[in-house]
Amino acid sequence: MKCLGIIKETKNIWERRVPLNPAAVKKLTDNGYRVRVQPSSNRIYTDAEFLAAGAELDSDLSACDLIMGVKEIPIKSIIAGKPHLFFSHTIKGQDYNMPLLQYFLDTRSTLLDYEKIVDEEGRRLVFFGKFAGNAGMVDALWAAGQRYWLEYGIKTPFLKIKQSYQYDSLPQCLEELKEIGREIAENGLPSEICPFNICLLGYGHVSQGCQEILAAFPVEQVEPEELAGLEDKHVNNKMYMAIFREEHLVERRDGGEFNLEDYFAHGDEYKSKMEEFLPYCTMYMSGIYWAPGYPIFLKNRELRKLAGDMPKLIMIGDITCDIDGSVEATHKVTMPDNPVFIYDPATDKITDGFKGAGFAVCAIDNLPCEFSREASDFFSSALMPFVEAMLNTDYAKSLTTCGLPAEMKSACIVHLGELAAEYQYLKKYL
Questions:
Q1: Is the dihedral of CA 148, 150, 156, 162 positive or negative?
Q2: In this predicted model, what pLDDT tens digit does every residue of 12-42 receive, in sequence order?
Q3: DSSP string, 278-334
Q4: What DSSP state is assigned to residue 170?
Q5: I need a labelling partner for 73 at 20 to 30 A (CA). Which of 7, 52, 261, 271 fits?
Q6: What is the pTM of this model?
Q7: Dist CA 360 CA 362 (whole Å)
């Protein structure tokens, strides 16, 4: 009888998500599989709920055929030789997780990563992105209200917004935001902060999550090129949202025509052109894919140009959380209990909190955990179609003959201690 192990999340106290919820576990146990769950007092679903679904509670997962979690599993908790599935954050060669990758190589183990479970067209199939967008947008609006009040003494309806984790559920959050949205539609925003322009980078799952939150407010969508014109023809009882695609963000260094496929293949041949939009941006929401070697979209030197007594740019919401990445000011990630820091471009220093000269940055590392139940249920439904096939895979065989579904083969970074062909490029980071 095949056995699945679900590990206890230990990255931080905020991580309450599960890869499979009790309903999914019950389907597995009803189908004759064993599921062993490490006890945890922090999960959004209790140990008792997993027991009721037929799971076993046990800290020892060494007898399991497949081990899965959500965030990075600590090296000390990896069971050598076993296949593990989780978000490893290694595919960009992230320095802080190269020891983890090396451990899988050294112990001849197998590492699978949710981020690379894709269909034939390369579209991700198992993800939390929408909920990162949901929570990131809520937290950024909340933080904007705090920044306006604590630093500049301006009261806005955004002061009534709570942080995402303080709502009982996403539906409750949306209902409360709609009330605030109605207030803005009736009474408007303070004239000194208008037009209130939200620059939303990206159009995928993260962006869709942000847009779901913004739909609770009186938001008018405009094209990025229209932002400058809003200075003269806006109304105070609306917020404005511009969605930025790659062609808005970058241009060829040689002045040639933009081509999306060429940009993805040769990112170093492009440069950012975001500076032309930044003077009109109230909230900069980063939800678009970025990797080293691609242009930095929001450079610190551009923030120096924007600095002043009260800059137009009140909030940088970096949902991507790439340290020193596409948002150069993201020198660190933050946590829900300390979510914002001020970046001062004059000194290149950061200070926690909402007060001080510079720009407020909200870069919470694992945003979907703020809506843990909804995020876990959605993720579980997306993952379940692959679980039985993964359990029945013969991981002792080669990647081509072991029986993994095609979607999961693309997610296999290391198999039996060897980097898969698609991930040979990671050798240079080890």
A1: positive
A2: 899 999 999 999 999 999 999 999 999 999 9
A3: GGG-SEEEE-S---TTSPPSB-HHHHHHH-SSS-S--EEEESS--TTSSBTT--S-B
A4: H
A5: 52
A6: 0.90
A7: 7
